[in-house]
Amino acid sequence: MREKGPAAAARVGVLGARGRMGMEVCKAVDAAADLELAAAVDQGDDLTEVADARAGVVVDFTTPDAVMDNLRWCVERGIHAVVGTTGFTERRLDQVRDWLADRPRVGVVVAPNFGIGAVLMMQFAARAARHFESVEIVEQHHPRKLDAPSGTATHTARLIAAARAEAGLGPAPDATRDEVAGARGADIDGVRVHAVRATGLVAHQEVLFGTTGETLTIRHDSYDRASFMPGVLLAVREVPRRPGLTVGLDALLD
Ligand SMILES: NC(=O)C1=CN([C@@H]2O[C@H](COP(=O)(O)OP(=O)(O)OC[C@H]3O[C@@H](n4cnc5c(N)ncnc54)[C@H](OP(=O)(O)O)[C@@H]3O)[C@@H](O)[C@H]2O)C=CC1
Ligand SMILES: O=C(O)C1=N[C@H](C(=O)O)C[C@H](O)C1
Predict the structure, then answer these.
(1) Total domain count, the chain
(2) What pairing do the DSSP bridges indicate for beta strands 107-110 and 186-188?
(3) Which of 21, 86, 155 to mutate to test the pocket of ligand 2 (most atoms within 8 A of CB)?
């Protein structure tokens, strides 16, 4: 952590700082002229380090088990939060909205994926969804990932399901009668999602659409965690100007 002097705009605390994403975020914040890495906290460290260091924004890349307590702690102290950790159900998002109602100046950005290409992949998939009767998602990740399917795949499935419902599409055709459990993947709002884990992968997703005589495949690949950093830094800079809860990076990109 090096002091950058009075010109530095935001003091940033990183939670999950010794993890794969946390380490990358610390590097990116440290390298940004307008940001100061104020605190780097991981499992077993005391969160008060963040408050003592006067961090104005916290970035959380921890675990689905830890993130809600961290977020509540930040909101209660008036600290803005940028959250990449997965596991955000509608119920969890509502809980965050409740906390923020008592702290109307605090901003929280929760994004299932900070990769610009991944955000576009989700937007393209949502746009294509109404034109195809069949759709399946295949996500591929490194084998140390704790959750399946990925937050990105879950979010994509929900966007596609909403677009299908709006277009009046029913369930995708599927005659399967005998199934080995799991062979057809997870069912997220009626969209089948398949999760692959293999050494060598980072984060990848394909959305496969089908209709009579044609298919459309939309694919995104993150080969390096550096791919998430422009999105994370954008959110860090924007979150103080956006009170309340922002879900997804889309609004910030526009
Ligand atoms: N939104 C996005 O763009 C992206 C999101 N992710 C998500 O980010 C999360 C982290 O991923 P990744 O970095 O690969 O995971 P890692 O397991 O590498 O890192 C998580 C870190 O958080 C630590 N941790 C656990 N509990 C706490 C706590 N209460 N306070 C502080 N630190 C804690 C872990 O410690 P320990 O190992 O000791 O438990 C670990 O060092 C996942 O949910 C992943 O899906 C990942 C990439 C991109
Ligand atoms: O754990 C990961 O690595 C990733 N997690 C996020 C997710 O679950 O969607 C984002 C990206 O896919 C990498």
Answers:
(1) 2
(2) unpaired
(3) 86
Structure tokens at 18: 């010794």
Closest CA to 86 of 203, 215, 219: 203
ipTM exceeding cut-off 0.95 for this assembly? yes
Amino acid at 164: R
List, for residues 80-114, the tens digit of each pLDDT value.
999 999 999 999 999 999 999 999 999 999 999 99
Q: Which residues line ligand 2 (CB under 6 A)?
A: 86, 112-113, 141, 145, 150-152, 203
Residue to mutate (ligand 1; options 27, 43, 48, 49; most atoms within 8 A of CB): 43
Model confidence pLDDT, tens digit, residues 50-89: 999 999 999 999 999 999 999 999 999 999 999 999 999 9
Q: Is 224 helix (H, G, I), strand (E, B) or coil?
A: coil
Question: 191 and 139 share a domain?
Answer: yes
Ligand 2 atom showing the smallest separation from residue 114 Cα: 10
Q: Is the CB of residue 119 below 6 angstroms from any atom belonging to ligand 1?
A: no
**The whole model's pTM is what?**
0.96
Residue 162 sits in which domain range? 116-223
